[in-house]
């Protein structure tokens, strides 16, 4: 990094609010935020497609197109909401927390409505109902997730503690994943078939848990850092976009995260069919969810020390390489039992757990780099751009997932799928992840510039600049 890269047309002043010191209460509060987010996010990504195909009787390809349209809209909503948040002044409770409180209630209600089936309606009605309720839920999700994600950079300015916040956020997501993926199949399926009443019961139960977690996030976390109100802070979108184009770390992590999110959504959708149809046991989804969560929690104790020694970039790329090797190996082992498959894939899950555990710390680093490049502090906007990429990944995954499931020959009307369809499902669940994880490894290694040394230099530079 060189001083020539810095634009000094504006000098936002960071101000630390008088409050209790940063500590475990903030970490738990931030954990509860993604705990609440992912009760419905994981429920939707893992089980909504099978709900639509098996209960609403909508063709998988049609669902894929619906997901694609809705998620592209959600991506735009993220950026609009992020810009809106950056124009708001911080109140007594901060700049971001109040929006979590206000919007979480309509968000959870819209999530429950997605799983309501009105008996006796036409196929056209179910398609329209699915599209409208899914679109509303996705839009409301932006109004909660954007302020939640942006909040990490104002809870603390310490880079090590921000990594801890990222870890606790991932812990919250994986706790929700543990509950959804382990208990979900037991609640939602009866005799290996999706049940409408059970899906509704699950949505209500997970909705209650979700709103409880959002309130815990609001109560336990504290925003400490604000920007002083200056005329320079009011910046046009064009200036922001110019800075974003110069933000190489952001562009790199956007591409890597887009690929990772697209794959995660695809695998989440495909795994239901993998275990239900290929292995003939929907209940094994519970074991897979348990193994995945266990892999993350096994990785957690190593993250902080490994980041301190090697850096975030280094451990994330190593994890991606391990995952790629495991899933490519699984592709060439098509005759494993369901239990053997779960055990071997657990090693791959352990690899990508390291990327998941530090990815939100990557985001705070690229927010800092945006300030380094432009002299502007725009937490909401930069985070919303990152979220935009994730939503595009979700859109593509939803579209590709539905189209891919349909293209390999899956037919919900058949009690037994063709061997061609089963082989296609297995390929989607193994070969595709192996290739994508390898691509992410290459992006992080060769294009993401903030290794350990450069990240530390960035923190020192920004601290000196703010003090000046």
SSE order and pairing:
Elements: E1 14-16, H1 24-54, H2 60-86, H3 97-113, H4 123-150, H5 152-155, H6 159-188, E2 189-190, E3 193-194, H7 196-220, E4 225-227, H8 237-246, H9 248-278, H10 284-309, H11 312-331, H12 338-374, H13 379-407, H14 419-446, H15 452-467
Helix pairs in contact: 1-4, 1-6, 1-7, 1-9, 2-4, 2-13, 3-4, 3-7, 4-13, 6-7, 6-10, 6-12, 9-12, 9-13, 9-14, 10-11, 10-12, 11-12, 11-14, 12-13, 12-15
Give a description of the structure:
With 468 residues, the protein is mainly alpha-helical. It has a single domain (20-225, 242-467), classed as Growth Hormone, Chain: A (Up-down Bundle). It has 15 helices and 4 strands. The strands form 2 sheets. It has a two-stranded antiparallel sheet. The chain has a two-stranded antiparallel sheet with strand order 2-3. The radius of gyration is 22 Å and the shape is globular. 54% of the residues are buried. It is a multi-pass membrane protein. The chain crosses the membrane at residues 28-52, 58-80, 100-120, 126-148, 168-187, 199-218, 250-275, 281-303, 315-333, 339-363, 395-413, 425-448.
């Amino acid at each position: 990094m060189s001083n020539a890269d810095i634009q000094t047309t504006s000098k936002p002043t960071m101000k630390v609010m008088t409050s209790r010191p940063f500590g475990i209460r903030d970490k738990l509060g931030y954990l509860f935020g993604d705990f609440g987010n992912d009760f419905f996010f994981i429920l939707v990504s893992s089980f909504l497609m099978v709900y639509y195909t098996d209960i609403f009787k909508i063709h998988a390809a049609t669902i894929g197109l619906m997901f694609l349209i809705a998620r592209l809209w959600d991506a735009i909503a993220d950026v609009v909401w992020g810009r809106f948040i950056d124009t708001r002044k911080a109140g007594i409770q901060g700049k971001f927390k109040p929006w979590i409180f206000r919007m979480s209630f309509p968000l959870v209600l819209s999530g429950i409505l997605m799983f309501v089936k009105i008996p006796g309606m036409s196929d056209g009605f179910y398609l329209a109902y699915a599209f409208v309720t899914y679109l509303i839920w996705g839009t409301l999700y932006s109004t909660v997730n954007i302020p939640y994600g942006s909040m990490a950079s104002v809870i603390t300015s310490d880079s090590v503690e921000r990594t801890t916040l990222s870890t606790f956020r991932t812990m919250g997501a994986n706790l929700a994943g543990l509950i959804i993926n382990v208990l979900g199949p037991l609640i939602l399926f009866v005799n290996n078939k999706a049940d409408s009443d059970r899906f509704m019961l699950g949505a209500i139960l997970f909705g209650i848990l979700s709103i409880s977690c959002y309130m815990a996030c609001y109560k336990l976390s504290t925003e400490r850092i604000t920007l002083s109100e200056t005329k320079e802070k009011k910046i046009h979108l064009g200036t922001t976009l110019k800075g974003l184009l110069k933000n190489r770390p952001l562009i790199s992590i956007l591409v890597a995260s887009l690929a990772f999110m697209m794959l995660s959504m695809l695998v989440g959708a495909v795994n239901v069919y993998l275990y239900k149809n290929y292995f003939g046991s929907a209940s094994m989804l519970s074991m897979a969810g348990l193994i995945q969560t266990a892999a993350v929690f096994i990785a957690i104790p190593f993250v902080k020390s490994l980041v301190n020694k090697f850096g975030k970039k280094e451990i994330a790329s190593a994890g991606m390489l391990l995952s790629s090797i495991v899933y490519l190996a699984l592709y060439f082992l098509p005759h494993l039992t369901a239990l053997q498959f779960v055990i071997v894939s657990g090693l791959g899950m352990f690899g990508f757990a390291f990327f998941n555990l530090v990815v939100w710390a990557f985001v705070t680093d690229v927010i800092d780099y945006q300030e380094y490049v432009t002299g502007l502090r725009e937490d909401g906007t930069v985070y919303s751009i990152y979220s935009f990429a994730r939503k595009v990944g979700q859109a593509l995954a939803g579209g590709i997932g539905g189209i891919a499931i349909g293209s390999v020959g899956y037919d919900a009307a058949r009690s037994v799928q063709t061997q061609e369809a089963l082989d296609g499902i297995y390929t989607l669940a193994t070969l595709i992840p192996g290739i994508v994880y390898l691509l992410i490894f290459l992006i992080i290694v060769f294009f993401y510039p903030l290794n350990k040394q450069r990240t530390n230099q960035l923190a020192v530079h920004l601290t000196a600049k703010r003090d000046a």
